[in-house]
Amino acid sequence: MQKKPYYITTPIYYPSDKLHIGHSYTTVVCDTMARYKRMQGYDVMFLTGTDEHGQKIESKAAEAGLAPKVYVDGVVQGIKDLWARMDISYDRFIRTTDDYHIQSVQKIFKTLYDQGDIYKSTYKGAYCKPCESFWTESQLRDGCCPDCGRTVEQAEEESYFFRLSKYTDRILKLFEENPEFLQPTTRINEMVNNFLKPGLTDLAVSRTSFQWGIPVTFDPGHVVYVWVDALSNYITALGYQNDRYNDYDRYWPADLHMMAKEIVRFHSIIWPAMLMALDLPLPKKVYGHGWLLFGGDKMSKSKGNVVDPAVLCDRYGVDAVRYFLLREVPFGQDGSFTNEALINRINSDLANDLGNLVSRTVAMADKYFGGTLPAVRHAEAIDEDLIGMAEKLRPAVQRLMDDIQFPTALTEIFRFVSRTNKYIDETAPWILAKEEADRPRLASVMYNLLESIRIAAVLLSPFMPGTAPRIFAQIGAGEDVTDWESAAAFGRLPSTVTVRKGGTLFPRIELEKELDALEALGAPADKPAPPKEEKPENVVSLVEIGDFAKMDLRVAQITACEPVPKADKLLRLVLDDGGKGRQVVSGIHQWYEPGDLVGKKVVVVANLKPAKLRGVESQGMILAADVGDDARVLFVDGDIPCGAKVR
Ligand code: MSP
After folding, report:
1. Phi, psi of 48, rounded to the nearest 5 degrees
2. How far are the Cα atoms of 68, 134, 342, 546 from residue 129, in angstroms, in the given order?
3. pLDDT tens, position by position, 589-647
4. Ligand 1 probe mutation, 17, 24, 25, most atoms within 8 A of CB
5. For residues 591 and 103, what is the distance between their CA atoms, to the nearest angstrom?
6. Of 157, 226, 316, 390, whose CA is between 20 and 30 Å from 346?
7. Ligand 1 atom 15: the closest Cα is on which residue?
8. Paired residues of 48 in beta bridges
9. Residue 7 C-alpha from the chain's centroid
10. Could you write out the three-class secondary structure of 405-455?
11. Are 81 and 93 a contacting pair, CB within 8 Å?
């Protein structure tokens, strides 16, 4: 059966500055989607490239004492090297200096001119030099460029114009009739209110003030101005109006144009208008994600090595960086990058949760069975919860990916990783290992763990393409049980699977030491301020519902209590938590005596990793409120049974 085509694009990058971690965000997002679609059986065309013309590049090359083409050749190679370093699996790389693209753009320009969609006139207006954009007075923000905020200058120049104004109504209708076309929805309102309702103005599409551009064939003093050149890449790269490729019929219209929000206007208004003028189908979806901010500001290379994606990949591994980008930023909104947040994510999610799960499981299978599980089995009811969750995972992840919700898809997978870790605690394999009679049960437990890891790793493959194969190698999963389809059912690993101990997947990073090392590498002197996110007062930072769902809060009754020896502030509480019971060490002795507490019901954080306080193990913590300098334990109404979940 012929595979269904899927065409996804990144914007084409300006080869003017070194790319920072914010730039790589768009590309990592697209790569993940491309890999996901390939795993689902699509014939994917994933396009990226470079946008190499314009005044800014001409000036940069002159500063460097190089011809523009020589200058861009060097930078473009650096961009390709970065994408190779970040495991970006693009299928095609277009450069706007490629001959075939130049020929196509010249033909497109001429067609639009011949049919009257492009005409010659004089442009007088506010011009933002860095953005190479003219703006109308109503579009300026406080008299400055609405995109970059810099001052604009009055400019006048003979120019060809694209009759954008003619398409206002058709574009408005497009947004009304097809709300899926532009996402997230907030971007539609921005476009309608800021640009469409005031009425579109015709767009200057040629320049005479610089030479580094595609010459207008019928008027040699003019070069094609940036957006007609740049946006056309999405079809010229498929062979539209050129002989280099023959893929237009197969892949156009694009399934997804992905980009950050500041270039949504060009993709959702100017590009559709150009396509309408050329009588070509429109892309199916334009998605404008948010910005990755650094210290509350838009990222820039002046932040130094700490935001250099190649440096970050070298220090932490590419998959850790990819994971952070995809997990940390609420998709569609702005998110904050700090080195501290990156390291914390690596330590908590990757080293502690995922890495530990794999290494513990493989080490136990190795220790108890010499690496190969016996075929004998003994299932118990407790397995059903884990298996049920495993089998629901793929549809859930699929739904979220189809909805372009990368962070929530990852949250689901990591919720399952945590559940699997909990299964180890519930089944306590080290106790089963003591009795010969328990070996069938132990084999079942180990199998369930390996199989859960396999399913999680399959679903993680598009996000972390280097890590999944390392996990498969350790858990003994052959190629036939690592494809997307194989994650649908529990039980695909052979029953006598053989594990192979491997290296640590994600070594823990010492936060303070690492931050010092980064500072020595040239981090900015001023530590990043928290991002300017809109949040209710009194709230430290917003979390997703999925993050809160990770907390297992339970009602428990204090059945016994005593001071911890040689620790003034600590009390040891014995709790009836509706299950096996537990002990918790709490620093509340300065406010409570044991007699105040015994018999009372409290809320305990039941899934907190155990910790030793003054040599006494604490299996969770109880909730208390700060009242001035005091702490008050939160007591619970007597009617609520022990073990009840608090949500
Ligand atoms: N050349 C144009 C695009 C033309 S497409 C026909 C361009 N290039 S760019 O190099 O400036 O940006 C490339 C991509 O990186 C864009 O999606 C841009 O929005 C994105 N980002 C640049 N900085 C970013 C952040 N700090 N955060 C998230 N994305 C960012 O625009």
Report:
1. -140, 180
2. 18, 9, 35, 44
3. 888 888 889 889 999 999 888 887 777 888 999 999 887 778 889 999 778 888 898 98
4. 25
5. 80
6. 390
7. 23
8. 93
9. 20
10. CHHHHHHHHHHHHHHHHHHHHHHCHHHHCCCHHHHHHHHHHHHHHHHHHHH
11. no
